[in-house]
Amino acid sequence: MDLKKLMMDYLAEEGFRPHETEFGIAFKIEGFNFLYFKDEEDEQYFRLMMPAIFEVTEDNEEMIMRAMNDVNGNIKVVKLYTMDLEDEKGKKSTSVWVAFEILADTTPEIGDIVPRAINLLKGARIAFLAKLEEVADH
């Protein structure tokens, strides 16, 4: 089983125009960026992400952690976490990423998994932003 090939084929068939990046397979849906990561050491590990949905700063870090914790505890199969990145000029930044992670069986139905994963990722993003607004108001 090659999840990366299955994912690339599915996305192309659905018209999402996927392309490979240093991180994995990138594509857009309704203006949102998504990344599929292949784990070379675990062929059944399926991870689809919405990268960099919110920038983390010293001023908002505590609120972000509280909002992420709330979403992580309330929405199944997805988790939010922060990721540190460095751009080509050496500038470092931290942002919130949303991940959908499962262990796929040996004959996964990608057409069943991907739409649900995308909906859960978008829902987690909405829940995070709503919770962040709620936390900021208090």
Write the layout of secondary structure elements.
Blueprint: H1 3-13, E1 19-20, E2 25-29, E3 32-38, E4 45-56, H2 61-74, E5 78-86, E6 92-103, H3 110-136
Antiparallel strand pairs: 1-2, 2-3, 3-4, 4-6, 5-6
Helix pairs in contact: 2-3
Q: Under CATH, the topology is which?
A: Yope Regulator, Chain: A
- The Rg value, from CA coordinates, equals 16 Å
Mean pLDDT across every amino acid position: 93
Strand content: 25-35%
Number of strands: 6
Number of domains: 1
The CATH class is Alpha Beta
Sheet having the most strands: 6 strands, antiparallel
**CATH-derived architecture:** 2-Layer Sandwich
Notes on the protein architecture:
- The structure is a single chain.
- The protein is α+β, with helices and mostly antiparallel strands and 138 residues long.
- It has a single domain (3-136), classed as Yope Regulator, Chain: A, CATH 3.30.1460.10.
- 38% of the residues lie in helices and 34% in strands.
- It is built from three helices and six strands.
- The protein has helices spanning 3-13, 61-74, 110-136; strands spanning 19-20, 25-29, 32-38, 45-56, 78-86, 92-103.
- It has a six-stranded antiparallel beta sheet.
- The termini are far apart.
- The mean pLDDT is 93.
